[in-house]
Amino acid sequence: MARLLSLLLLACATLPAHADEHTVVVKAAAPEKGCVEVEVHGKRAQSISCLNEKLLPSSNTVNRPPPTLSGAEATVQRPSNQLGLYNRAALEHRMGNAFGKSVTPQRPAPPPPASPLRPAR
């Protein structure tokens, strides 16, 4: 058993030495201006990095100010509660603790009638 263990340790110690002899270092080539098309099994595919470069905006569009909105576009960009549309947060606030339990909103309890014998404050 000890002999098998020592052989195993010796084999593991020699593995890194063999790996260094057969290691191949590949350096990336400088990026080219043109795109490379590859054909695999009859299907053509372009380089992803080249396609990403084509999709980047040009430098003159980056510094350009955004266009002004027309009246209709400005109205569409307003919040839903300003347009009178459904807004869950506003509905929960209006309904109070009756939200999801009743169709009538929560109202405070009516005040007790004033006593005719007691003077008003």
Short structural summary:
The protein is mainly alpha-helical. The chain has 6 helices and 2 strands.
Architecture overview:
- The protein contains six helices and two strands.
- The termini are far apart.
- It has 121 residues and is mainly α.
- It is elongated, with a radius of gyration of 38 Å.
- Helices cover 41% and strands 7% of the residues.
Instruction: Give the total of beta strands.
Output: 2
- Integer-rounded radius of gyration: 38 Å
Straight-line N-to-C gap:
103 Å
Q: Which whole number gives the mean pLDDT?
A: 76
- Structural class comes to mainly alpha
Strand percent estimate: 5-15%
Report the uncertain regions. none
How many strands, what sense, and barrel or not for the largest sheet? 2 strands, antiparallel
Strand order of the largest sheet: 1-2
In DSSP terms, counting alpha (H) and pi (I) runs of 4 or more, how many helices? 6
Chain oligomer state: single chain
Order of helices and strands: HEEHHHHH
Spatial shape = elongated
The helix fraction, in percent, is: 40-55%
Q: What is the fold's blueprint, element by element?
A:
Layout: H1 2-21, E1 37-40, E2 43-46, H2 48-55, H3 59-62, H4 71-76, H5 80-83, H6 88-95
Antiparallel strand pairs: 1-2
Key phrases:
121 residues; mainly alpha; two-stranded antiparallel ribbon; 6 helices; 41% helix; elongated
